[in-house]
Amino acid sequence: MPSTRRIFVLCFAAWCVGRGKADEPRVPAKEKSTTPPAVAEIPAAESFWIIPLRVILLQSDEFPAANCSLRDEDLERIVGKVNRVWGPAGIAFGLESIRRETAIVPERLKPVPAAAAKDAVIEQGSNGKEPQSAAATHKTAPQAVKPHEAALRDAGSSDLFRAMIPAADRKFAGFRAYYIHAFDVNGIYYGRREMMIQEMAELRTVPGGIDEPLPRVTAHELGHGLGLVHRQDRVNLLASGTTGTGLSAEEIAAARKAAEKIPGALKMNDLEKTIAAETDPQRQALLKRWQAEVAKLTN
Ligand SMILES: [Zn+2]
Q1: Checking CA distances to 146, which of 75, 182, 227, 272 falls within 20 to 30 Å?
Q2: In this structure, is residue 239 part of a structural domain?
């Protein structure tokens, strides 16, 4: 039986350790203790599923938060890294195209013209500061008030962004990843094989994690697209807000099962035949590029 003195020393030590981590977000103990090892080995090329991925960079002159500034080469690098994350699962995402689309900005998010912006002046005054005159404010204010900033602070602004996705896009077989400038979360999987990611994404660094946020956020949202749920062990791909990329054998099995059912998904061992049967030379070239990407991953 430990003495009372010993119990006191142990409690004091635990208290000190607890204090040292006070500035870190706490991870619930039960989630920490059930960490299956991540699968690191990449399986043979023949076992791969290739899922088409269309990348859409939303553009907007009237709503800066929607206006993504990423370049094509950024997206090629990002998708390459996503495929290295998913490699151990035998799943690769075939970059179908990188497009730029004008965001459909809902009326309530459009900037208010300066002539109609008197309400904004009144609200500044109600913040406990001296009310400013409309004339004084308009002298220094830009042409319009910025409702997008308020929308960004709103929890749930990511829901508003979903309305910016053109409905016609939903016919695409495969996943669609939309990139915008900024909203209230790093990324969101909306369902219907569509996800949105902010180019300003920030993550908490964890040991062995990936070196940049966007491939991780994209790979994480694709994980949701393949039916995976959050698992908060920090170094895991499905942990929230970290650079972790680990996938367990269970997650891999579930994701592969889901991959089969994604419209447009191709099995690598049938790809040679599919390529030979393809009559559209552009599509044929695309399939060959995906085949080469998997070969590169597995070599
Ligand atoms: Zn998530």
Answers
A1: 75
A2: yes
Spacing, Cα 54 to ligand 1 middle (Å): 20
Which strand (E) or helix (H) includes residue 188? strand 187-191
Q: Which two tokens stand for residue 125?
A: 């005054």
What is the pTM (predicted TM-score) of this model? 0.77
CA of 230 to the centre of ligand 1 (A): 6
CA of 188 to the centre of ligand 1 (A): 7
Q: How far away, in angstroms, is 202 Cα from ligand 1 center?
A: 14
Kindly give the distance from the C-alpha atom of residue 18 to the centroid of ligand 1, in angstroms, as a whole number.
27
Total domain count for the chain?
1
| Angle of CA points 206, 190, 83, to nearest 5° | 50
Residue 266, domain member (yes or no): yes
Does residue 154 sit in helix, strand or coil?
Answer: coil
Distance 186 CA to ligand 1 centre (A): 9
Q: Within a domain: residue 120? A: no
287 Cα: distance to centroid of ligand 1 (angstroms) = 30
Q: Is residue 103 part of a domain?
A: yes
CATH code, domain carrying 225 = 3.40.390.10
* Residue 281 belongs to domain spanning: 48-107+152-294
Output the CA 158–ligand 1 centroid distance in Å: 13
User: For residue 19, how far is its CA from the centre of ligand 1 (angstroms)?
Assistant: 29
Q: What are phi and psi of 101, to 5 degrees?
A: -125, 145
Dihedral angle, C-alpha 230, 231, 232, 233, nearest 10 °: -150
